[in-house]
Amino acid sequence: MKKRAAPYLPAPGSIWASLPTPALLLDAQDRVIAINPAAEAFLNLSTRSMQGQPVLDKLAIDAPLEEVFARARTNQSALFLNDVDVGTGERAPVVCNLQVAPLNDDPTTLLLTIAPRELADRLGRAQNVKSAAKSAIGMAEMLAHEIKNPLAGISGAAQLISMNASAEDRELTDLIVEETRRIVKLLEQVEQFGNLRPPEQRAVNIHDVLDRARRSSLVGFAAHMQIVEDYDPSLPSTLGDGDQLLQVFLNLLKNAAEASKGKPGVIRIHTFYDLSLRLRRRDGTGRAVPLQVEIIDNGPGIPPDIASEIFEPFVSGRENGTGLGLALVSKIISDHGGWISVDSVPGKTVFRISLPIAPKGTAGDGDETA
Questions:
Q1: 255, exposed or middle or buried, with CB in 10 Å at 0-12, 13-18, 19+?
Q2: pLDDT in tens, 136-148
């Protein structure tokens, strides 16, 4: 009888380096002994800069950690903290779940793991955005249909009255016409949001679309801004609708330009490849979304009270905003099988879009399928 091979047991160092969750080892004085690569990436801090430093000097954690550490050592058991803000000087706080546990062979040494809820929450919002959009679309279509026709009559009547009105009365009729036109423009945005046309799935060079958006922005709403290109030219094509993606990038560039409130500013368009993110489909299978596009501005940032809902319909940080632009962006990216997220602190706002790769042999813009 053939002897069964012994199972492979990885070295402890290999397990530590492979952990997908940020983890830190702390000595008896709560100083950092080591951090794994996932923690380096999450905290944007190197192992060398952390080693030997009190962990509470390096991390801003909204919880009584000294008490938690003491209880974990005294009781020799793991403790869990949910929904805790974790930040550093390099990044804004992120809601996380923490676990603190003593090591079996050294009860004074603690293992601190940090599980960011940021990604899960955003993916959940990305999955739910379609249902939220459908609810808004139903109301949008009803409003557009019921309001546009009477508005045309009101505007026409005001124009007829102005023909025989005094100068003072013409100011009032002009105001009526101006306001009805403004409402019509708003309704056109609502109708645009209600467009349920699925994207035409073709191979799209993302840099061609970004270049069109950049050039259009610079001759219009972003004329006062400097737009910097930071592209990875080796990126493959994505699968999607070039016109709809152009609409997405124009919306994001317009938001970034308007955030400066007319003052000169800088917008950076950054593209790169990251294979670490996969979206789970409804059937349980995963799909890689490795093509990354970031729109980064140096404006004042998104108001904290609406940051978590910025992609929801009718949520806006601008005084006269409709709250439909970013909801439309989120809907389009969701329809493309991708996802969108935002990180914002005063002086730096980053909208990040993750998209799939076009399969080999997919027809591109201007091509004909066989």
A1: buried
A2: 556 666 666 677 7
